[in-house]
C-alpha cells in the first residue's frame, strides 16, 4: 500500500510540474471524445430521421367512379390481412378529390382539366400505411389482382425507399467523416502523450537515478507515468461527459421540436447507456495512453 500511494503521489507531482503539457494532453483527449460522441448523437438522430420519414409515408389508392363502397371495403379488409400493412383508412370520393387537388396544387394543367370535367372524376380511395417503407412495393404488387386491379384508377406510390436509402447513405458518410476525425485526434493524442512522458522522464531523470540507486523497484519508477496517463483519460472522460450533458440539455428542446411526433430523447439515451458510452471511452483512451506510455518508457526510460 505504501508503494501504491507513492506511485499516486509521484504521478500527481509529474502532472503538476508539467501542467501545460498535461493541459494539452487532456484537451486533445477531449477533442477525440467530442468526435466520438458526435458520431453517437448523429447515429441516434439518423435513426430518428428514418423513423420520422417512415411515420409520414403512406400510399393513396384511388378507385374508379363505378367501384362500389362494398368492393372498396373488401380491398380494405384484404390489405389489413397482410402482415406488412399497419393501417388502411377509407376515404370518400369528395375527400379523395380534395386530396388530389392538394397534391397537384402546383400543376395548373391538371387543375384546369379538373375544372373542365363535369362532377367528380375520382371515386373512393384508401390510404395505406406500412410498418416499413420498403414494404410498399410488396403491398402495391398485392393489389395487382384480377379482382381489384380493374377498379383501381391511380396509385400515388413514390419510391420512398430510395429517399430513405439516400438519407442512410448521407448519415453513413458523415459518421465515417467523424470517425476519421476521431482517428486523427487519437493519433495526435498518442504523439502528445508520447512527448509528455518523454519530457516527464527527462525532468525526473536525476530522481529516477537516485531512486534506482537506493533500490526502488521498476514498479515504483514506471508506475507514476502509467498512473499519469490514466488520470488524463479519466479527467478527459469526466469533462466530456459533463459537457455532453450540458449541451444535450440545452439542445434537447430544439431537437424535440424538430422531430415532432418521434421519440428522440438524447439525454435519456446517454443516461441509459452512460456506463457503456463513457466507460468505453475511458477504456479506449486508457488503452491509447498506456500503449503510448509503454512505448515511450521503453525508448527513453533506462531502469
Shape: rod-shaped
Number of helices: 11
Biggest β-sheet description: 4 strands, antiparallel
SSE order, one letter for each helix or strand: HHEHEHHEHEHHHHH
Rg from Cα = 32 Å
Global structural class: alpha+beta
Q: Count the beta strands.
A: 4
Mean pLDDT: 78
Termini, distance in Å? 22 Å
Strand order of the largest sheet: 2-3-1-4
Which runs of at least 5 residues are low in confidence (pLDDT < 50)?
none
Question: Strand portion, in percent?
Answer: 5-15%
Helix proportion range? over 70%
List keywords for this structure.
4-stranded antiparallel sheet, alpha+beta, 4 strands, 73% helix, 11 helices, 303 residues
Q: In words, what does this structure look like?
A:
This protein has 303 residues and is an alpha+beta fold. The chain is built from eleven helices and four strands. It has a four-stranded antiparallel β-sheet. The longest helix has 44 residues. The mean pLDDT is 78.
Q: What is this structure's SSE topology?
A:
Elements (H helix, E strand, L loop, with lengths): L1 H16 L1 H38 L2 E5 L5 H12 L4 E7 L1 H11 L4 H9 L8 E6 L5 H7 L9 E4 L4 H44 L1 H9 L4 H41 L7 H7 L1 H27 L3
Antiparallel strand pairs: 1-3, 1-4, 2-3
Q: Quick recap of the structure?
A:
The protein has helices at 2-17, 19-56, 69-80, 93-103, 108-116, 136-142, 160-203, 205-213, 218-258, 266-272, 274-300; strands spanning 59-63, 85-91, 125-130, 152-155. With 303 residues, the chain is of the alpha+beta class. The two termini are 22 Å apart.
Amino acid at each position: 500500500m505504501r508503494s501504491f500511494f507513492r506511485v499516486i503521489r509521484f504521478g500527481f507531482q509529474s502532472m503538476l510540474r508539467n501542467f501545460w503539457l498535461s493541459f494539452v494532453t487532456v484537451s486533445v483527449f477531449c477533442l477525440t471524445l467530442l468526435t466520438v460522441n458526435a458520431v453517437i448523437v448523429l447515429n441516434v438522430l439518423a435513426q430518428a430521421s428514418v423513423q420520422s420519414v417512415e411515420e409520414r409515408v403512406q400510399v393513396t389508392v384511388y378507385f374508379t367512379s363505378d367501384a362500389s363502397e362494398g368492393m372498396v371495403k373488401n380491398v380494405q379488409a384484404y390489405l389489413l390481412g397482410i402482415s406488412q400493412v399497419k393501417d388502411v383508412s377509407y376515404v370518400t370520393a369528395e375527400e379523395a378529390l380534395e386530396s388530389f387537388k392538394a397534391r397537384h396544387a402546383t400543376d395548373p394543367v391538371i387543375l384546369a382539366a379538373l375544372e373542365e370535367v363535369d362532377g367528380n372524376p375520382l371515386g373512393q380511395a384508401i390510404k395505406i400505411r406500412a410498418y416499413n417503407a420498403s414494404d410498399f412495393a410488396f403491398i402495391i404488387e398485392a393489389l395487382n389482382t384480377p379482382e381489384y386491379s380493374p377498379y383501381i384508377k391511380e396509385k400515388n406510390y413514390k419510391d420512398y425507399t430510395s429517399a430513405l436509402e439516400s438519407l442512410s447513405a448521407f448519415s453513413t458518410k458523415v459518421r465515417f467523416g467523424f470517425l476519421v476525425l476521431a482517428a486523427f485526434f487519437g493519433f495526435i493524442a498518442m504523439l502528445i502523450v508520447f512527448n509528455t512522458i518523454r519530457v516527464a522522464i527527462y525532468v525526473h531523470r536525476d530522481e529516477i537515478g537516485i531512486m534506482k540507486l537506493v533500490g526502488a523497484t521498476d514498479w515504483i519508477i514506471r508506475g507514476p507515468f502509467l498512473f499519469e496517463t490514466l488520470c488524463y483519460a479519466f479527467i478527459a472522460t469526466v469533462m466530456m461527459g459533463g459537457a455532453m450533458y450540458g449541451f444535450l440539455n440545452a439542445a434537447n428542446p430544439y431537437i424535440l421540436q424538430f422531430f415532432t411526433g418521434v421519440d428522440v430523447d438524447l439525454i435519456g439515451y446517454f443516461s441509459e447507456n452512460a456506463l457503456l458510452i463513457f466507460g468505453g471511452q475511458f477504456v479506449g483512451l486508457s488503452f491509447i495512453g498506456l500503449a503510448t506510455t509503454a512505448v515511450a518508457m521503453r525508448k527513453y526510460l533506462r531502469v
